Request: fold
Amino acid sequence: MTGYTMLRNGGSSGNGGQPWVLRWSNRIRLTWLSFTLFIILVFFPLIAHYYLTTIDEAEEAGKRIFGPRPGNELCEVKHVQDLCRIRESVSEELLQLEAKRQELNGEIARLNLKIEACKKSIENAKQDLLQLKNVISQTEHSYKELMAQNQPKLSLPVRLLPDKDDTGLPLPKSIRSCRLHSCFDYSRCPLTSGFPVYVYDTSSYPWGEGLDPLVKQAFAASAKSSIYVTDNPSIACLYVVLVGELQEPFSLSPVDLEKQLHALPYWRTDGHNHLLVHLSQKSMTQNFLYNVSTGRAAVAQSTFLESQFRAGFDLVVSPLVHALSEPNFLEVPPQVPVKRKFLFSFQGEKVESLRSSLQEGPPRSFEEEMEGDPPADYDDRIIGTLKAVQDSHLDQVQVEFTCKNRPRASLPTEWALCGEREERLEVLKASTFALVIAPGDSQVVASAGCNMRLFEALEVGAIPVVLGDQSRLPYHEMIRWSEAALIIPKPRITEVHFLLRSISDSDLLAMRRQGRFLWETYFATAENVFGTILASFRTRIQIPAAPIREEPAQEIPHKAGKAAGTDPNMADNGDLDLGPVETEPPYASPRYLRNFTFTAADTYRAWNRPPGPFYLFPHTPLDPLLPSEAKFLGSGTGFRPIGGGAGGSGKEFQAALGGNVPREQFTVVMLTYEREEVLMNSLERLNGLPYLNKVVVVWNSPKLPSDDLLWPDIGVPIVVVQTEKNSLNNRFLPWDSIETEAILSIDDDAHLRHDEIMFGFRVWREARDRIVGFPGRYHAWDVNHQSWLYNSNYSCELSMVLTGAAFFHKYYAYLYSYVMPQAIRDMVDEYINCEDIAMNFLVSHITRKPPIKVTSRWTFRCPGCPQALSHDDSHFHERHKCINFFVKVYGYMPLLYTQFRVDSVLFKTRLPHDKTKCFKFI
Reply:
């Protein structure tokens, strides 16, 4: 305001109207500027738009630049065509995405509904599972209650471990009346005890220093190797004392021996549960236990008087001929030909008969008892009859009643042995029958001289003919001697010649084979004799035999790789139905415990049969031939396998518990030696094989597998077993990893299809006691060289099936490893060959049946694999030698020819899947 006043004042006082003009000019400029800007911003764009529109309409339609254009003509412009295509693609994708979004939203809604339904189902399933668990728990509880009510408790009879100072029960009225029920303490031997035996150290009692060193050493070695012997006397069931054989200078009176027996630390006044063993190497043995009060102790020796022997309590044993040496099987004559040079033979000199005057009176020595007039016997008639047969020349016989040299010492009334042992054996080797004449005095029920004759006859295959039915042969309560020897009363001496000529060749061979079995099993070695004594007593008191040991498998850790594929050539089964593929974990074959019933019911069958199909021996070292948990069961002709014969035929089907086991499995045992690539390929080919329980790879090389080696995953366990040495015998060891009856032994380079393996397995189930496989071979007799040959040429006849691809029962693995003569296994190790031939010999010897070949396949080698041992020329020469050696060991040729072959016809005949057991027999 002040400034305006001043300006006004100054204007009015200065130039008069100049300030007004200045104000006006300023207003004119502002208005003009505003108008100009308005024209530029408004009218000029309008004019430009109109002008351009006018020009666009005036031009030709094809040259329009601006303005609306019909359709998509704008896109015809070259520089915007790409943008148009992008716009159209994006629009289309947006439409698709929208449709998909809507679809996914619908799917999400449906899935949400399903989730809710599943949650409800899970809750319901949890409730059901909880109820099932409660039901199962209640059922198990009820089952346990029922089992507890119906299963009797196993309790120990009377007492288990009596005190050391226990006086025991009063002695029976007469020592002769001692029997197991009155003189044996069963409380020390419960069924579950395992039959522990305590053996006194021979150096712990006074007369031990007078024992024969060979007998003492053999006895100690046998006791050390027995599985029943224990070092703890407090738990022992039986106490064994070696009382003889005494050396010649050493003598011991009955009174002194009785005092020393009573001084034994565990005698417990009456000697119950003691066994006094008297082993003899001589035909004339001392009977210094005569007139010795043995109390409740049992006696086992070769010589007994009627007044001394307590039937069912004392034991007649065989002589100990081979004390420390093993019998030489190569010197044993063959079992064929059946008939030999002499029909029968006898060599002996009759010692002056002495009367046995057993009268009431003070005890006398054994020699005093035997003095007197000779009893009425048939010795003179025997001499006359046998000489008449020799003079008739109807048959060639060898009888000598006078020894060329001084006869061996023997008991009075007994026929003494003539000459040396080697001389007697030479005569027996040429004899079909060997006469064994019992002592003239009927009071002598067993004598070492007769037992020595019996032993030598069985050793060389001469069938014993025992003249005198009053004689007690070794282990007569257990062994059925009528199957291996002829026991004829002396009054029938005139009929002996007729009787011996009437026996057929087949019966002669059967008796000879049975005698060889008895000799090898019970008499041949000191270990056999000691084991038989223990087994006899154990069987009497009905304690089950201890199971045989299985070979512990020392596993080699290995890495499992990726799942193995299936070779189409291996798994192509054509029209053959393989049966159900096992989707469950591998399971072992069922096992039924029958040890006690075997011991109680099958004693005679076990003791008197050679190892027939699935047969076991109740005898140490054969006594523990029962595998773990008593896997084998007794049948009418032998032993049934695990499961009561499940899957077998005939007797096995009939006696099976619950019939067949249709889903029985088998174990593959594959031997390999540093061929990792070949082995991996073979393992992969087993992928998907039905009924396969596991694969046991026997790693036969000292060099372990490579650390980076990846083993295939074939759906079943692969157990790699490390062996102690490189031996082909390892193929047949009864590894504890094998839990099935059936074993498929297969080489690491063998090519077999799944259908072939399954067919072979099914055939084996119908013939469980046989070798069932693919590669057939046969033996032939070489007339020029008088020897056996091994032949691998194609033929319609065969006698062997190689175990490079064959099924067999695990039972034969026990027999091969623990029962078969060691000489055969040594031969296999020497040549690194012939283990398959040895197994065929063993099975044919036991069953007297040939193997079974399946399919027409004769070879199974893979064409691309490294060269095998069988390609070497020396391979066949070694196999020739093996066959001839095995024949010497067995004493005859056990292999049997067959023209039988089993082929499948399922590829020709359309059958339902439940009726696929059809075979074609060629």
